[in-house]
Amino acid sequence: MFFASDNWAGAADPIAESLSRHAKGMSPAYGTSDLDRRLEQRFNELFETDLEVFFVGTGTAANSLALSAVNRPGGFVLCHRDAHLIEDECGAPEFFTSGARLAPVSGDHGRICPRALQKQLRRFDPNFVHHGQPMAVSITQATEVGTVYNVDQLKEISGIVHEHKLPLHMDGARFANALVHLDLTPAEMTWKAGVDVLSFGGTKNGCWCAEAIIFFRPELAKQMPFIRKRAAQLFSKTRFIAAQFHAYLDDDLWLGLARHANAMAARLATGIEKSSQAELAWQNETNEVFVVIEKEHAERLQSAGARFYAWPTPNDSTTDPPEGHGMYRFVTSFCTDPAEIDQFLGLLG
Amino acid sequence: MFFASDNWAGAADPIAESLSRHAKGMSPAYGTSDLDRRLEQRFNELFETDLEVFFVGTGTAANSLALSAVNRPGGFVLCHRDAHLIEDECGAPEFFTSGARLAPVSGDHGRICPRALQKQLRRFDPNFVHHGQPMAVSITQATEVGTVYNVDQLKEISGIVHEHKLPLHMDGARFANALVHLDLTPAEMTWKAGVDVLSFGGTKNGCWCAEAIIFFRPELAKQMPFIRKRAAQLFSKTRFIAAQFHAYLDDDLWLGLARHANAMAARLATGIEKSSQAELAWQNETNEVFVVIEKEHAERLQSAGARFYAWPTPNDSTTDPPEGHGMYRFVTSFCTDPAEIDQFLGLLG
Amino acid sequence: MFFASDNWAGAADPIAESLSRHAKGMSPAYGTSDLDRRLEQRFNELFETDLEVFFVGTGTAANSLALSAVNRPGGFVLCHRDAHLIEDECGAPEFFTSGARLAPVSGDHGRICPRALQKQLRRFDPNFVHHGQPMAVSITQATEVGTVYNVDQLKEISGIVHEHKLPLHMDGARFANALVHLDLTPAEMTWKAGVDVLSFGGTKNGCWCAEAIIFFRPELAKQMPFIRKRAAQLFSKTRFIAAQFHAYLDDDLWLGLARHANAMAARLATGIEKSSQAELAWQNETNEVFVVIEKEHAERLQSAGARFYAWPTPNDSTTDPPEGHGMYRFVTSFCTDPAEIDQFLGLLG
Amino acid sequence: MFFASDNWAGAADPIAESLSRHAKGMSPAYGTSDLDRRLEQRFNELFETDLEVFFVGTGTAANSLALSAVNRPGGFVLCHRDAHLIEDECGAPEFFTSGARLAPVSGDHGRICPRALQKQLRRFDPNFVHHGQPMAVSITQATEVGTVYNVDQLKEISGIVHEHKLPLHMDGARFANALVHLDLTPAEMTWKAGVDVLSFGGTKNGCWCAEAIIFFRPELAKQMPFIRKRAAQLFSKTRFIAAQFHAYLDDDLWLGLARHANAMAARLATGIEKSSQAELAWQNETNEVFVVIEKEHAERLQSAGARFYAWPTPNDSTTDPPEGHGMYRFVTSFCTDPAEIDQFLGLLG
Q1: Alpha-carbon gap, residue B293 to B301, rounded angstroms
Q2: C164 and C308: one domain?
Q3: Residue D124 contacts by C-beta under 8 Å, 6 or more apart in sequence?
Q4: Which residues of chain B have pLDDT under 50?
Q5: What residue of A is the nearest CA neighbor of D96?
Q6: Using the beta-carbon criterion (under 8 Å), do D73 and A130 form an inter-chain contact?
Q7: What pLDDT sits at residue A315?
Q8: What is the torsion angle, in degrees rounded to the nearest 10, for the CA atoms of residue A253, residue A258, residue A261 and residue A263?
Q9: Are residues D214 and D274 located together in one domain of the fold?
Q10: D322 and chain B: CB distance < 8 Å anywhere?
C-alpha cells in the first residue's frame, strides 16, 4: 500500500528495456547523437510546432533553468503560494537565477486566482527600481493539490501574463496526468493556450530520470546551451535520457501510464467517498488524493503498512480539518496495483 | 575505430542489468532507501574510513559542488592550467561558487608543479583583501593528458596544501584508470596521501550516469545536503544511481573495466611507437594517448572511419608538433575492441 | 513642505564641516587610517562591548552584507512582510546571498508577531532539505511604519530566534529615531536585548552616506573583510565615511538630530489629530506619520506644494481607508522646519 | 613624501566646497534631482554623443557592474593579465556576474597584445559549450603600470573586439591622467576609438567617492537601473556624488588635477634618470613611476619617511630587477607637492 509519492516507483518496463537495448556501442556524447536528434524532432511533432527542447536530469533543474532563461536583474516570478517552486526546491530557482524572488499568489485548489495575479502585476512601475520587476509567471499543471487548469483557465491566466509582456511558464512535473484528464493534445494544453516555456516531466510517470525544458518561443532559448552546461545538467551519455524518452513516447506509453495512475486515484477517491472514516478534502482530478482522516485512525492505517504522508493545509484553504483530524496526501502511480487500493479501503472501513 | 572519448561508450552489461533488476517495486525516494544506505556503507568500506558521500549526476556537478562545500568569499581554487575544471566546465565551478576563481598553476604533463604551487600560495597575505584568498587546491587523477600523480607526488602536493591550511580536492573522473595503473588501494591514493575531497567518477568507466562526491573530513560536508538539493542534483529516484554503483563495485567490476581501457591504450601506444607515421607526444599511463601525426595523414585516417580529435598543445608543453603536424588525442574505454586498435594501426602504417 | 522622505535632506552642518576639515592631506586608504581605527574604537565604546564594525555606503549594502555573513545554502531570512528588505531592495539581499529567500512573517504595526514567527520556525526539520533552512531573523527598528519594538518585545523575539539557534539581525536605518523615542542606550536596544547583527544607519539622520554593519558576536564577522571588498563596498578614501561618523557621534549630534525629526513628526501628528480633514492611520512613535486623507483633498495639498507619497496599506492592516480616501506617508527629518509643518496644517484645515 | 597611492589623497578644494554648498535643503533622492539630471546632460556634452551614465560609489562597482550589463552564461572577459580587474578586486567582477571568468591576455607594459587577443578569441566556437563564451574585452587606460594606449593602439584592439561582435570595456580609473597625456578629447579616447562601455573614475583624481559607468551604446544599458539598485550602488542622497562631479568638471578642474599629477610623476622620473641609485623600470606616461632600487637603499628611504610600495614584477616583464634590487611603485596625485619630490630625490642620491 504505497501512496507516499509517485517518486517511489521505479521505471516502467519498456523504459528499462530501452535503456538496456541502447547500452551497447559507441555514440557521440553531449546530445549530439542521432538518437538525441531524433528525439528533438519527435518533440516538435508531438507539440505540432517548431520548438527548442533541452533535456535535463531533475525537475528542480527543469524549473530552475527555464526561469534562468528569462531572468532579469531584480526579477521575480509570480507563482501559486503552494507551488512546488516555492515549497520544495530548497531555493534552487533563486540560486540558479542569482537571486530572483518567487512571489506567492493566492488562489483556491492550487490554481492562481486571475484577479490576484492581475492586481499584483499592476503594482509594478517599470521605472521604479526599488520593488524589482516581474520576469515570469509560473503555473503548475497538474497543480500541487491534484487539480488542473482547464483550457479556459489557462487562457485567462496567459492573457493577463502576456498583457504585461511576460512569459508564462508551466511546471509540468505531472503534465501527462493533467493531459489525459483533460483529454487535450499537448499543443492545446500549452502554446495554443498561451504557455511559452514548459517543464515536461517524465520521471514521476515511469522514467528513471528524464525531464525536458521546452521553449515554444525559440528566441527565449538562445543562451540555454550555455545555461544548461554551466548548471551541470549537460550529461555526457545523453542517450540514457533519449532512450528513456523514446520508449516513453512510443505507442503512447506515457498516456497509458498516466491514465492508469489517474484511474487508481479515482478508484481510491470513490472508495473514500463511500467510507464513513474519511472524507475527500476536495475532488481530485489527477493522481493525488487529499483526504481528511481522524489522526488516530490514520496512525493505525500507517501501522498496518499503508505509506502516505500528513500534508499541511494549503495556505488559501478554508477547509481546516476538524479537531483531532488531519489532512493526508495519497499519490498513485503508473505501477499502483488496484489490489493495494482495495486492501487499503478495506482497512479504512 | 572509436577513440573520440570514453563518453561515447554506453553502459557495461552488469550495470545495465542492475538497472533493469531494480526497475520494479516501490522504494523511498531522495536517497533514503536501503539500497542508497547500503551504498554509502560500501563506500566507507571501500575507502577504509568514515566518510561522507553524496551522489550526483555529472562530473561537472561533482567538481562544482565539492568546491562549493569549501567556498569562501573572494576565494579561488588553484589547479593545473589545463585542468578540466578550467577548460571544459563552461564556468560551472565559478557559477556554483558564486564567483570563485580558478587560478592556473603550471606543471609538466598535466601535473601541478609543487614549486609553482608553493610560490603562488606564499603570495597571499590573509589580511590583504584585494587579492582574494585561496580556498582549495584541485588536482586531476588521472590528469587531463593521460598521466598520473604517484603517491610521492600526491604527498608532496598535499603537504604544501595543508601547510597553508587548505583542503585538497581530487578530480577523479578517471579515478579507476589511475588506481589500476598505480596498483594502489582507494585509501592509499586518497586520504592516506592527503586528499580531503574526491570527485569519484563512474560515468567514463562504464556507468550511464553515476558520480560521487566523497569527503574524507566529514566536517567539510555539513552543508552538502542543502548544497546538493539547491544545485538540482538530488535525484528523486536515487536508486537508479545506487543500482549502477552497486554493480560497478560488485566483484571489482570497476577495476576490470579500467584495466581493459588502460590495456587498450597501451596496445595503441605500443603500435604507435613502432609506426613510422606517428609519434607519442609523451608516454601515457592510463587510457588517453596523445599522438603527433602529419595533418594530412590524420585526415586520411579520419576519412577511413577512425574517430579521434585534434587536441591543443598543453600550455606548458615544450613539444610543439613540427610544421605540418598536429597533436591528436585517442581515448580508449571499457568497451574498446582490440580489433579496432589493430585495424587502426594497420591504416596508420 | 517636504515630507517625501528623510532621504531628501542633505547633510547636517557639522557633518559637512567635518568632511571639509578632513579633505586635505594624505592618509592610508581602505580603512587603515588612524581616523578609521579611532572610529572603530568609538563604536566599541558607544555599544559598551567588543564588537566588529564594517562601514559601507548604502543601507541596502548594510542589510545585504549582514545577511551574507550568516548565509547558508537554501537558507532564508524571516522578516516582517512589509519590511524594507522585502519591499524596497530590488532583490539585493537575495542577490548578495546568491539566492537566499526572504520569508514574510505577519504582525501588526510593522512588528513581527512572535507567535507567527514561532509557528514558522517550528515548521522546519533540519534534515528535510526540500524546504530549505532558516538562517536568520531580521527586524526593523524603527519599523517601516514609524513604530518601534520596545525592550520587552525585542527580548520576546530574540528569545524565539535564539531558541532556534539563529542570529537576530536588526535593520537600523532609523536606529537613532527609535533609540531616542525609547530613551535607551545603544547597548540596551541591541545586544542586551538579544540582537546579534545591526545595520546602523547614519544617512537618513543627517549624513551624506554613512552606514555601519555591527557584529555583536565577532565570530560571525570572520569573512566580512572579504565579503565587503567583493561586494564593492570597501571605499578607498574611507576617511570620507569616518569623518561623517565622527561628527555624527560628537557631542551626541545624532541623538539631537533624531529628537528633532521625531518632535517634528509629533507636531504633525498632533495637528492631524485636531484636523477634521485627516486622521492618523495609527499612532506614530518616530519620524514617520501615516495619515488617511480624502484623495481629492490630498491632491489639492500636493498641488499647493506639499510633498508626500501615497502609501500602500500594510498587508496585515485592518484599517483600510474608507471609499474615496487614501493612505499617505509623511516623513520628517533632522532639517524639517516647524514652520513647514504649521504651513501644511494650515492648508490641511 | 607620500607616493603610496593616489587613494591616500583626500578631496580637491573645489570638490569639498561643492559638497558643503549642496548640503542644505531638500532634493529628490535616488538620482532624480535636477542636479543629477543636469550632470547626466553634462556627460552627454562632454563626450559629444548620446550616452547612458550611471553613478556608483567605487571603482570596483563601476567595473563589475559594467561587465554585469553585458554578462552571458559561461561568459568570460579577456583582460590584461596584470589588470586591476584580475589582481585587485577580490573576485568582485566574478561575483557580480555570478561566475564570469577573467581570462588573462599577455602584453608588454600593461597593454594587451593584439595578436595574443586575436589568437585567444579565434579559439572559441560559439556552438561548443564546454569552453564557455567570451562576453567582453576590458582594457585599462591608463594601464596598471603607468602607460597608456594611444589612439592607434585603441583602434587596433577595438577592431579585433568588434570583429568578434563583443563589446569593448575601458577601465578608466585613471582616465584623466591618460587623457591629458595623449591630449585627446574624451570622445576621441573612447567611442571614436571603439570603446563601448567606460568606467570613468573621479576618486583617484580628487573626488571623495565618485565613479560613473558610461554606455556609448545605450541599448547595452537597458537593465542597468535594476543592476545598480540590486548591487546596492544606488545611493539615496545622490546629490553627494553629483555635487562632486559638477565641481570636478567645472572649468576643467579634472584636467588640471590630472596634469599636475602627471607633471609630478615626470619630475620624479627625471630625477630618477639622473640618479645613480635608481633606475626607471620603464618610461612612465601618467602618474605612476616604477623604479628599480637596491633593496637596502629602498628600506633606508622608507625609514626616512618616504611612503611607497614594493611591487611585483609584471607577469610579462623581461626586466627582472638584478640581485639585491627590488621593483617599487611611486604614485603621484593631484595634491603632490613638488617639494616632496625634491626632498625624496635628495635622499635618493
Answers
A1: 10
A2: no
A3: D131, D133, D134
A4: none
A5: A98
A6: no
A7: 64
A8: -100
A9: no
A10: no
pLDDT at B316: 59
Q: Is the ipTM of this complex over 0.90?
A: yes
For residue B64, give the chain A residue with the closest CA: A232
The residue behind cell 467510507 is: A275
In a domain, B260, yes or no: yes
Strand locations in C99-194, DSSP E?
101-105, 133-140, 168-172
Amino acid present at A162: H
One-letter amino acid identity for D88? D
A228-284 pLDDT, tens digit each: 999 999 999 999 999 999 999 999 999 999 999 999 999 999 999 999 999 999 999
> End-to-end distance of chain A based on CA atoms, in angstroms?
15
C284 in Cβ contact with C290 (< 8 Å): yes
C-alpha cell at B319: 613539444
**Distance (Å, rounded) from C-alpha B158 to C-alpha B164?**
10
Residue A172 belongs to some domain of the structure: yes
Write down which residue in C221, C237, C252 finishes a domain.
C252
Q: Report, in angstroms and rounded to the nearest whole number, the Rg of chain C calculated over CA atoms.
A: 20
Its pTM stands at 0.96
Cα–Cα distance, A104 to A83 (Å, whole number): 8
Work out whether the CA dihedral A243, A245, A247, A250 comes out positive or negative.
negative
Q: Is A17 in Cβ contact with B20 (below 8 Å)? A: yes
Q: By CB neighbour count within 10 A (0-12 exposed, 13-18 middle, 19+ buried), where does C248 fall?
A: buried
Residue at B39: amino acid letter: L
Residue pLDDT, tens place only, D179-188: 999 999 999 9
Strand-strand pairing, C52-56 and B325-331: unpaired
Q: How far apart are CA C59 and CA C57, in angstroms?
A: 7
The answer to whether residue A314 scores a pLDDT higher than 80 is: no
Mean pLDDT per 10-residue segment, chain C (349 residues): 95 97 94 95 98 98 98 96 94 97 94 96 90 97 97 98 98 98 98 98 97 98 97 97 98 98 98 96 96 96 96 71 94 97 96
Residue B269 belongs to a domain with what CATH number? 3.90.1150.10
The answer to whether residues D311 and D331 belong to one domain is yes
- Joined together, the cell numbers standing for residue B343 give 585495424
Task: Please tell me the distance from the alpha carbon of residue B208 to that of residue B212, in angstroms, as a whole number.
Answer: 13
Residue C147's pLDDT is 97
Interchain contact A223–D (C-beta under 8 A)? yes
Q: Are strands C52-56 and C211-215 parallel, antiparallel or unpaired?
A: antiparallel
Element (H, E) at D269: helix D253-274
pLDDT at residue A318 tops 80: no
Q: Using the beta-carbon criterion (under 8 Å), do A236 and B58 form an inter-chain contact?
A: yes
Whole-number pLDDT of residue A317: 60
**One domain, residues C237 and C308:** no
Low-confidence ranges of chain D (pLDDT < 70): 315-319
Confidence of residue A64 (pLDDT cuts 50, 70, 90): very high
Q: Pick C99's closest partner by Cβ from A74, A95, A130.
A: A95
Q: Mutate which of A26, A35, A89, A257 to disrupt the B interface (most B C-beta within 10 Å)?
A: A26
The pLDDT value recorded for residue C315 is 64
Pairing of strands A101-105, A75-80: parallel
